[in-house]
Amino acid sequence: MTATEAGARVVGEDERLARIALNTIGEPGDPRLTRLVEAMGPVELHDRLLADVGLSGLRSETAARLEGLDPRRILDAATAIGVRFVVPGDLEWPEQLDDLLGVEPLNRLTGAPLGLWVAGPLDLAAVCRRSVAVVGSRSATSYGTDVAADIAVGLAAAGRSVISGAAFGIDQAAHRGALSADGKGSTVAVLACGVDRAYPTAHRDLLRHLKENGAVVSELPPGCAPTRVRFLSRNRLIAALSQGTVVVEAAVRSGALNTAGWAMRLNRPVMGVPGPVTSAPSEGVHELVRTGAATLVTRAAHVLELVSPMGSHLTQLAREEPSARDRLPPTDLRVLEAVPLVQPAGASGIARTAGLSVSDVVESLVRLRELGWVVGSAGRWRRSPDEPLG
Amino acid sequence: MTATEAGARVVGEDERLARIALNTIGEPGDPRLTRLVEAMGPVELHDRLLADVGLSGLRSETAARLEGLDPRRILDAATAIGVRFVVPGDLEWPEQLDDLLGVEPLNRLTGAPLGLWVAGPLDLAAVCRRSVAVVGSRSATSYGTDVAADIAVGLAAAGRSVISGAAFGIDQAAHRGALSADGKGSTVAVLACGVDRAYPTAHRDLLRHLKENGAVVSELPPGCAPTRVRFLSRNRLIAALSQGTVVVEAAVRSGALNTAGWAMRLNRPVMGVPGPVTSAPSEGVHELVRTGAATLVTRAAHVLELVSPMGSHLTQLAREEPSARDRLPPTDLRVLEAVPLVQPAGASGIARTAGLSVSDVVESLVRLRELGWVVGSAGRWRRSPDEPLG
Question: Cys staple from A242: which of A125, A133, B40, B205, with CB 3.0 to 4.6 Å?
Answer without folding.
Answer: A133
